Amino acid sequence: MKKSLICTLLLGFFTNPVFSAETIKIALTGPFSGGSAPMGTSMRDGAKLAIAEINAAGGIAVSGKKKKIEIIERDDEGKNERGALIGQELASMDDLSGVIGTVNTGVALAGDKHLQEKGITKIITPAAGSASMTQWSKAGVKDLSIFRFAADDSIQSAMVVEEAVNQKFTKVAIINDSTNYGVSGHDDLVNQIKKQGNKLEVVATEKFNIGDKDMTSQLLSAKSKGAQAILIWGIGPELAAVSNGMAKLEMKMPLIGGWTLSMSNYIDNSGKNGNGTLMPQTFIEEAITPKAKSFIEGYHKTYNVTRIPSPVSAAQGYDAVYIFAAAIKQAQSDDTHKIKEALEDLHDPVKGVIETWKHPFSKWDPANEQTHEAFRRDNAVMGKVLDGHVVFANESERQRLIKNASK
């Protein structure tokens, strides 16, 4: 072998690690396949859109150098055991700056403990139920590296109950799936009914499993007991089976539930039977601001679609990346521990597609998990399914989001 070729190979061997060290490694995790895939893929693709914009601008300035973001993708398939394995793998990476993602509550419970043990900074988005954060306050964890960027279930359940009360209903049925997310959502709904003065009587409580296609028995129970509305909490295409079952049984009552009712696999599988379904949203696919218009058009063009499978997920993934990037810039480091400290005290506002984020997180207080929750009630509106799309249910809330985004 010629000497020049040997030198070239050796040079490549030694320079490749240096090149790698010049990037900032961020993992994107979520269900990129399976029933929760519309949420996971939309989050991932929204995040990648933001990363592409940052990298195209030269990257993030850190200690006098511009560093581009390197993406590590992991599909947890919405399975708890996969979440645990991915958590262990990512926790073993010494050069990982952070993690963004997770949809399913059980996945977060199984995997995040490994990241927390190593102090790896993670922003949960677009979902995961209340337990994904309350587990840490209940355990009295003194220093937490896990943050969440989503409207938590206490916000959503409060809005669902408020909607039912405002529509003058007095009797409701609660139907939820049997996952950690569905069970915790049921508990949140019951707690909110109590908090709001027990104006609703829960006449039926029913469950369904992932994969169920026939909801007749659950719906007949609600109908026979005089339910005027159904409050629902679930994560997959089974939600459409509920709407289709209601139409078959000629149940005219409204369906009101968690934000996952905005997913494409609910809207497409329920068809016209989904019209009128109500759910909390943090982003609706409408160009209400120049930033929203640019984001929507960019997503459509990049991924060759005419509708985002889960607009909430995509927008939250996009904004989460920019918030994480702001923390890196403020910390002037890609060290995950320093990024965590910066996230707890971001100095400069971050212009997002949902709104301009001002100090979204604060120093962790185990007595108050809201310190690591970015969203508040004002960040959410009520959405409504109409002919294959989610639209604003109330014009006043549409105007509020426009105002929030322009601040």
What does this structure look like?
The structure is a single chain. The protein is α/β, with parallel strands linked by helices. The chain has 2 domains: 215 residues, Response regulator (Rossmann fold, 3-Layer(aba) Sandwich); 153 residues, 3-Layer(aba) Sandwich (Rossmann fold), CATH 3.40.50.2300. It is 45% helix and 18% strand. The chain is globular, with a radius of gyration of 22 Å. The relative contact order is 0.13.
Q: Topology, pairings included?
A:
Blueprint (H helix, E strand, L loop, with lengths): L2 H19 L1 E8 L6 H20 L3 E3 L2 E11 L4 H12 L4 E6 L3 H14 L3 E3 L6 H8 L7 E3 L4 H14 L4 E7 L2 H16 L5 E8 L7 H9 L4 E5 L4 H11 L6 E3 L6 H7 L7 E4 L8 H14 L7 H21 L4 H8 L6 E2 L4 E2 L23 E6 L2 E4 L2 H11 L2
Parallel strand pairs: 1-3, 1-4, 4-5, 5-6, 7-8, 7-9, 9-10
Antiparallel strand pairs: 2-3, 11-14, 12-13, 14-15
Any descriptors?
407 residues, alpha/beta, Rossmann fold, 6-stranded mixed beta sheet, 14 helices, 15 strands, globular
Mean pLDDT across all residues, rounded?
92
Whole-angstrom Rg:
22 Å
The proportion of residues in beta strands is 15-25%
Helix content: 40-55%
Q: How many helical stretches?
A: 14
Give the class-level CATH name of the largest domain. Answer: Alpha Beta
Category from helices, strands and their pairing:
alpha/beta
Shape: globular
Report the span from N to C terminus. 64 Å
Annotated CATH architecture of the largest domain: 3-Layer(aba) Sandwich
